[in-house]
Amino acid sequence: MLIAFTLTPVGVGESFPDEIADAVEIIRASGLPYRSDSMYTMIEGEWEEVMDVVRRATEAVAARAPRVQLVLKADVWPGRPGGLLDGKIGAFERHMADRGQ
């Protein structure tokens, strides 16, 4: 399973690095494969472990903010071995290379 999610603390002003840093520490400590960019964090793993990380990260932000918005997108692929985080990008890059781009 691959999860893409974003947490937005509401009611803490325009800059909120400490609230997000708490969530990132939980994600890093999970040991699950992950990748973050300017809009989302993607985490790969089994349903229970991935959702536990999302829950704990959300709770960490909620401990510092009066409200938290969570946006979550999941790619549930039963029976698929790991490697989705890099595998999907690799497959796309190979496709583009085959097209000469």
TrEMBL record:
Gene3D superfamilies: 3.30.70.930. Coiled coil: none annotated. Residues 4-89 form the Thiamine-binding protein domain. Pfam families: Thiamine_BP (PF01910). Belongs to the UPF0045 family. This is MTH1187 family thiamine-binding protein.
